[in-house]
Amino acid sequence: MCQPLHAVVVGAGIGGLAFAILARKQGLRVTVLEKTEELTPVGAGIQIPPNASRIWAQCGILEKLKEFSVVSKATQLRRWKDGELLCTRTVGEGLDDRWPWLVIHRADYQRILVQEAEDLGATIRLGCNVQAVDFDLGSLTLVSGEVIAGDVIIGADGLWSSLRRDILGHESPPQETGDLAYRGTFSLSALQELGDLQVDELCRQDVVTMWIGPESHAVFYPVRCGKEFNLVLTRPDTLPPNVRTEQGSLSEMMALFQNWDPVLTQILSAFSSVLKWKMMHHEELATWTRGNVALLGDACHPSLPYQAQGAAMAVEDGAALATLLGIYQQSLHRGNGDGAKQLTIPKILENYEALQKARTTTLHLGSISNQQMYHLDDGGEQKERDRVLRAAEWRERPLGETEAFIWIDVRYQRAIVERDTIADARAQWDKMVSELGANK
């Protein structure tokens, strides 16, 4: 019997862990190399839309995630100045109880995935900083000098990926988006102590609330079963080019948002400290793969966070790639003549890229579109935007017709959240095998 394929994953973020979990379920041997000495999640809240929760349901760990999450019932857009409700969207949130739209603390998300990967037999090694990759030998050299070989190497090393540079053959850093974000979390009790009836009412709603305004917007939602709340505020970037994050000034933040909806400014008053994060993204890469090495998640398609799809795309990548490699391994073990034996790992990786790349580029462009829609200055364009949002009919228009904004485009939204990544990966495998048979 053939030995299981050995997949070496660089990076223990959401995408790398998703691959590790799915790959172990397919019977691959998995080693995850994480450069940090301790897994300390960056950020606070994170959203798990239905296209990602479907994958976790298929893996059997959705219920574990739900224990530490809130199921979002809707996403609401509100006007920045007075909190007027412009639009409530339930596309995705109300799609199917089997794969709900979850909101969760990133620390809980990562902890659950780490535990699941280890329970399934994945090896997670901390303090492993990769220095070089050998594409001919299929190996990695760590800063310590240790060499680790694998049948396939997965670069899940995030926004500042070193494997991206190695695959492309040149430096390819992410670009500034022009925005930065303030991020923080609040306890329910801290918000209740404000004594504001409108804030209390908002805290009782299991929804994602967004205030949209000139050059800025705010996102607020519950995490940890409603015991805590996450808030992200965006504004034009003022951080120096070489500074990614720094401690923010509460007085500066309050001054920037002082004329916004009083409900939001009341919530801001509960901040004890705040961090500023430079928001970065990257244009579409020429390629995600080289030999037996492939990228996933932010390493190959870092995007603006204006669709709540960045982490979900990394989960999709991990699921798609693990599914293709799992079927490939099964075909090697069977040793049958279905044409699969003509396939190679580089070919599998190319098909993974073909399956995911156009989709992630579409979503990247969609995030840019949402950024522009959210941040309109008050005036004619803003008034027309608000009119269109208020009049949203939430029906799928005939082919050839589109909405003014993708945020209310039912066909576009369903294409995102209804995606069954694992089924699509299996279909991609069948297509590969069929094409091999046709070319004999």
Describe the structure.
The chain crosses the membrane at residues 6-23. With 440 residues, the protein is an alpha+beta fold. The chain is built from 14 helices and 20 strands. It has helices spanning 14-25, 50-59, 62-66, 106-119, 162-168, 188-192, 197-203, 250-256, 262-268, 310-334, 345-374, 380-390, 410-417, 421-438, and strands spanning 6-10, 29-34, 45-48, 69-71, 75-79, 85-89, 102-105, 123-126, 130-134, 139-142, 147-149, 152-155, 175-187, 208-213, 216-223, 228-236, 245-247, 275-281, 289-290, 293-295. It has an eight-stranded mixed sheet with strand order 6-5-14-15-16-13-18-17. Strands 8-2-1-12-20-19 form a six-stranded mixed sheet, sandwiched between helices. A three-stranded antiparallel sheet has the order 3-7-4. The radius of gyration is 22 Å and the shape is globular.
Tally of DSSP β-strands = 20
Largest sheet: 8 strands, mixed
The global form is globular
Strand content: 15-25%
Q: Order of strands across the widest beta sheet? A: 6-5-14-15-16-13-18-17
Q: Which structural category fits the helices and strands? A: alpha+beta
Q: What is the straight-line distance between the termini?
A: 27 Å
**What's the tally of helices?**
14
Give me the Rg, rounded: 22 Å
- Could you tell me the mean pLDDT? 93
What's the helical proportion of residues?
Answer: 25-40%
Family: Belongs to the paxM FAD-dependent monooxygenase family.
Pathway: Secondary metabolite biosynthesis
InterPro entries: FAD-bd, FAD-dep_Monooxygenase_BioMet, FAD/NAD-bd_sf
Keywords: FAD, Flavoprotein, Membrane, Monooxygenase, Oxidoreductase, Transmembrane, Transmembrane helix
